[in-house]
Automatic annotation (TrEMBL):
This is GOLI4 protein. It comes from Scopus umbretta (Hammerkop). It comes from the Eukaryota. GO terms for cellular component: Golgi membrane. Residues 5-60, 90-142 form a coiled coil. Keywords: Coiled coil.
């Protein structure tokens, strides 16, 4: 009985030692599990925080994207309006340019015809001037001849007058 008692006592001690060992292991595992739970809790909080920040960033990005799209659309509309205005102004200026080109062509034609007319008039006047100059020279020559003849005649008449005067004096 003592042997059995001693044997059972050893078994109980061994079981208690084993139980103690398992309790220590359980406590160590419990402490590790506590650490793991705390770490998991921190990770979940961090994940929730990251999700919140991601959601906020995503919303901010969507707002930014919407604003950028609106700004782009507005800029595009402004550009189209400016393009339309410039296009109509270009058409007006092109039409004006065509009109000015046409006027220039008309004025060049008119200038050429006036130049030709001026040349003809100048030639006509030059011819008339030359003819009048010739007529004048001819008339001057005739008048000089007439003056010369009249002087000669005047000399002859004076001579004759003097002869008549001399004859009268002689006759008296």
């Amino acid at each position: 009985g003592v042997f059995l008692y001693s044997h059972l006592r050893q078994k109980v001690r061994a079981a208690e030692a084993l139980a103690q060992k398992y309790r220590q292991q359980q406590e160590a595992l419990s402490a590790q599990l506590q650490v793991v739970y705390e770490h998991r809790s921190r990770l979940e909080r961090s994940l929730q925080k990251e999700r919140g920040e991601h959601k906020k960033t995503k919303e901010d990005f969507l707002v930014y994207k919407l604003e950028a799209q609106e700004a782009l659309n507005k800029e595009k509309q402004d550009s189209m309006n400016r393009y339309g205005a410039l296009s109509s102004q270009h058409k007006i200026l092109k039409n004006q340019h065509e009109d000015v080109k046409k006027q220039l062509l008309d004025l060049q034609l008119q200038h050429n015809s006036l130049k030709l007319e001026h040349r003809k008039t100048l030639e006509t006047h030059s011819q008339k001037y030359a003819q009048l100059q010739q007529e004048k020279d001819s008339e001057v020559t005739n008048l000089q001849d007439t003056v010369f003849k009249l002087r000669e005649e005047s000399k002859l008449l004076r001579k004759a007058h003097q002869e008549v005067h001399s004859q009268l004096l002689s006759a008296q």
